[in-house]
Amino acid sequence: MGIVYSELACQAAYDGDVRKLHCLLKSDPAQLNVKEAHTGDTPLIAACRHGHLNVVKYLLDNKANTQLTNKKQRTCLHYVSRRTFSLLDYLMIAILMPILLLGYFILLQKQRQNVALMETVLSTNISIDAVDYKGNTALHYTCQNKSHCLVPLLLKRNARTNIKNDDGETPLDIATRLKFNKIINMLRKTS
């Protein structure tokens, strides 16, 4: 079950419906950065929340504002960095793993999609060190989710590693607490 938005542009972006989004923006260009009343999500945040790369590219090509935040003070970058595998993804991977390693290929494809989504968002003027209502940056979330493919992308864009969240933890503290050694080494090299 997904999210239901009151704003049609947000719903179309969340659903990955570029055609419907195009029609909505053609009839009312102000829908590009419209904020949904309940969550404060914009179409770009909604697309990033669900991981629709084609919609994100379409919105960015139309100059969607990457600096806008929702009611949780999260930007689209926060949602890209929070993306993890769903329960359905894990089930498919586990079931298909013994069958010619199909599960492994699904895992790799999902990781590639997340990297492409992150690279697309990072190619804009997004504020890399924006903090949400918990004081977390995108780097905090990638460390928390053990996204070892995404951490280097943020570090390459000079994401600050010394920002403490409301719990007093830096991204390195999170990686250390969770014993993600590969991420710990990446963070230590840049500090």
Automatic annotation (TrEMBL):
Record SUPFAM superfamilies: Ankyrin repeat (SSF48403)
Keywords: ANK repeat, Membrane, Transmembrane, Transmembrane helix
Placement of ANK repeats on the sequence: 39-71, 134-166
Membrane-spanning intervals of the chain: 87-108
PROSITE patterns reported in the protein's UniProt record: ANK_REP_REGION (PS50297), ANK_REPEAT (PS50088)
Keyword flag Transmembrane helix: yes
Domain of life: Eukaryota
Keyword Transmembrane set for record: yes
Record's protein name: Ankyrin repeat domain 22
Source species taxonomy: Eukaryota, Metazoa, Chordata, Craniata, Vertebrata
